Amino acid sequence: MNLYNTDEVSVEQVRTVANGIRRRVLEHTILNKGGYLSQACSSAEIFAVLYTKILKLSKLKAPIVPKPFPGVPGPLNKDYFTGESYHGEKGAAYDRFYLSPSQYSLVMYTALIEVGRMSENGLSDFNKDGSSLEMIGAEHSPGMGLMGGSLGQCISQAAGIALSRKLKGEEGRVFVFLSDGECQSGQFWEAVQCMAYHKLDNMVMYVDVNGYQCDGKTSTVMNLEPFDKRLEAFGARVFRVHGHDIERLAALGKQKPDGRPLFILADTCPYKGIGILKTREPKFHYVRFTKDEEIKDYHLALEKMK
Amino acid sequence: MEINSRVHANNLLKWAKDKKEVVVLSADLTSSTEIDAFRDTYPDRFFSMGIAEQNMLSFAGGMAREGFVPFVHTFAVFIYRRAYDQIAMSVAYPNLPVKMFGFLPGIMTPGGATHQAIEDISVMRSLPNMTILECGDATEVESVLDVAMEVNGPVYIRMLRGEIPRLFSQNEPMRLNQVRVLSKGNDITIISSGICTEEAMRATTVLKSKGVSINHLHISTLKPFDDNHVMDAIASAKFGVITMENHSVIGGLGTIINEIIAKSGMQKKVTNIGIKDTFIHGASKQYLMKEYGLDAMALIHEVESMMGSSYDIKENELKEAFIAAVHSEAKPEAL
Known about the structure:
By secondary structure, chain A is an alpha/beta fold.
């Protein structure tokens, strides 16, 4: 399916993309006996909405077949590429989309397949040695245009890009996907104050507020709340929504700029769509399957999603 | 000796005039890093980033991706110590043309340990894609901008401000990966960098009058480091090699030369003058150079030790040390 952002894309189609993201991520998590599964559960609607209802990206002639790892960038590497080509050409009118937490790489890859930007079998090399589709991707990985990590760095880089685009008079906006845990870092708040000070209203941040991080429940690791009020106090324009509500997620991202960077805090559920994952609470960050019994259960869940 | 004031301030203004891609980022040290004139002349290309260096370095990486060449200005310590991960991932990994101007290297500040960049070369040198330059006089402060621009990637610069001597002719600008041969000889090879070169020149003038034959090299590119003159100078030294730098003896120029000698298989004695693996404290440049053995006298003692001779040189034989006026117009702020 080649799904581009047009008004004709229905809520049902967006939901199909979101479900496809979950299904594909679960498939590969089973294949690898583990992975970043809950990230797909919480963020599938955000990615689906972004690619089908929000982002203004150029069309591709055909879905891209991933190439192997091109080597690291440097003055001598002439074959180097970034994964931004999956978003089409970098025209002045087009948006940019950057993924901050690279633990969501597989969500990004599967979203690209779902909307026809990566070939259907593009994940055949996922997590294999020498592939550009690492479990924790980098700027050469499909969909990525910069080094999102380590956590907290993406938003500052995107802010530099957003200011540059303003200086060049480019219309396209700069979108960043973040997750809540990384917003504990000092650099994140440095970036927000900077974006507000330099009036970067061409930036839109979608934050997956799933409430969990590596150690467990976010409120027991380092409290971020009231997250929306804190951001507002820093000068951001903030909306907080049910993070699986496709229509709301889409409507908020289409608003006219008002001088402030726009944050859409999406309150999500880390086991949405894969109910048996709930038994792992509060450890959702990385799922590892150790028992055959467990793998069978997840196989069953996968069958039900097809 | 010709002394120049606010060299960077004046030079940057002229140099950047028609370079619209060059933008200047400041972390609340605008006059302290001599970019106040740039700010006032080209306000559209000056961006205040506040005391938030981690964001500033990643932000600079973002601007570089869009075709700008960010000139990041702050004190050296606040670049590499506060924002190392950001330099590594947002700038160095993608090999972006972000030029980092680190002021007050080593003992150049009375600000004490918090302000003194004593291990910056050591830290930055191990970063892939990084180029490291160090200025030793006014000519180098002026010409380092062209060198930094010619590099297709990130550059870290140990920069000088305020009143700066001119040691090298303006017709002989800094060149990437090229050493300056300041004197030729075959007893001792002295390899110096930054402000230590002025001290070394003072010492070598007197030592030569005592009959010591000295090969003196000045280094302004610390990475890459493969000018053949270095190998030749090491090979020609009968008694040994002395390195001299305003930096820790671990990881900087001394270490680079030690590595070169070890790899070459040459049997050469080598002595490293520098900050001896210690933090230092806040005091004047003259005091710290003497106290920590970075001055002309320290070099003379090492030469004597290496030659096994005593030349009975008194401090007053050395040309009077250049002392910057503490409350000069050129330093608008205490730090």
